[in-house]
């Protein structure tokens, strides 16, 4: 239904314009397009680089651009609202800050080969519970990866704008070869990596990292650790550049479970997955996927 049909006839073609403490009705046709109300959304990833100490930078940005800027973490978005020209100015200023700090920006997505096999997930969950039962120092449930989100990572992606996400999804669907694999069939996964990574790097969605692929599925990750602070359960956030983490000793784990076998999982899809964002099934949110035979 057209929104204009819901408006009172007297308000159709009219825009409310504030001036001081008063509101005036002005013909929409008489207002330059750039002065009309506008709204835009950008990736929450930007937040780390323009928020600033105690919010000083974002407050300065809102003041200079005369916009309203608020975070919507549940949607992984930052909302910018104001006049169209001011919204565009705010977006440009944010992008300039991020571009300046581009080498420090965390990856936002990754090329994922999800491991959906229920049997494998069940074995991983049992393994994690067995580890927790050992009550080892610096090991707690918060660093255990959810079995429903198990995956093999092909490469990390830097997709900070919606057009980047759409471009990467299109590239995946047009370039992904007819490949599938069992976890133990490393040659096929390696070939998939060798096929896709250069294409995503050339397209600017990946950083050029000259290091070999290590085929693995993470089941414990200390960067997920949560700590008790002021009675609240908060995510432990180490300095990203130094990657300082609270480590644990794996000696007893290796001694007790060195021969464990999680089974075989058929890989049926390749996804562009969002880091740190999960759906109702506990899987990483997928921006797009390519079906493997």
TrEMBL record:
Domain K Homology positions: 52-96
What Pfam family is a match, any one?
AKAP7_NLS
Kindly list the GO CC terms recorded for this protein: nucleus
- Which GO biological process entries does UniProt record here? DNA alkylation repair; regulation of DNA-templated transcription
Q: Which GO terms describe its molecular function?
A: RNA binding
* Alphabetical keyword list: RNA-binding
A-kinase anchor protein 7-like phosphoesterase domain residues are 107-175
Keyword check for Transmembrane helix: no
Name used for this protein in its record: 3130_t:CDS:1
Show the taxonomic lineage: Eukaryota, Fungi, Fungi incertae sedis, Mucoromycota, Glomeromycotina
């Amino acid at each position: 239904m057209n929104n204009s049909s819901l408006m009172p006839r007297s308000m159709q073609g009219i825009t409310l314009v504030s001036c001081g403490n008063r509101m005036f009705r002005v013909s929409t046709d008489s207002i330059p397009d750039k002065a009309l109300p506008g709204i835009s959304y950008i990736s929450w990833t930007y937040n780390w680089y323009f928020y600033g100490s105690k919010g000083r930078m974002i407050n300065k940005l809102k003041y200079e651009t005369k916009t309203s800027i608020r975070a919507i973490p549940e949607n992984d978005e930052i909302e910018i609202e104001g006049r169209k020209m001011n919204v565009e100015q705010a977006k440009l200023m944010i992008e300039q800050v991020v571009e300046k700090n581009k080498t420090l920006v965390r990856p936002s997505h990754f090329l994922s080969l999800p491991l959906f096999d229920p049997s494998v997930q069940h074995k991983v969950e049992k393994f994690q519970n067995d580890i927790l039962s050992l009550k080892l120092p610096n090991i707690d449930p918060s660093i255990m990866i959810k079995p429903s989100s198990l995956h093999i990572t092909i490469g990390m992606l830097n997709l900070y704008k919606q057009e980047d996400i759409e471009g990467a999804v299109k590239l995946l669907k047009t370039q992904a070869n007819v490949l599938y694999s069992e976890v133990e069939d490393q040659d096929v996964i390696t070939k998939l990596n060798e096929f896709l990574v250069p294409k995503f790097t050339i397209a600017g969605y990946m950083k050029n990292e000259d290091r070999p692929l290590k085929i693995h599925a993470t089941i414990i990750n200390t960067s997920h650790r949560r700590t008790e602070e002021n009675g609240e359960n908060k995510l432990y956030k180490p300095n990203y550049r130094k990657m300082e983490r609270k480590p644990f000793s794996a000696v007893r784990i290796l001694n007790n479970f060195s021969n464990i076998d999680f089974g075989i999982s058929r890989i049926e899809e390749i996804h562009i997955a969002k880091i740190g964002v999960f759906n109702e099934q506990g899987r990483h949110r997928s921006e797009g996927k390519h079906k493997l035979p």
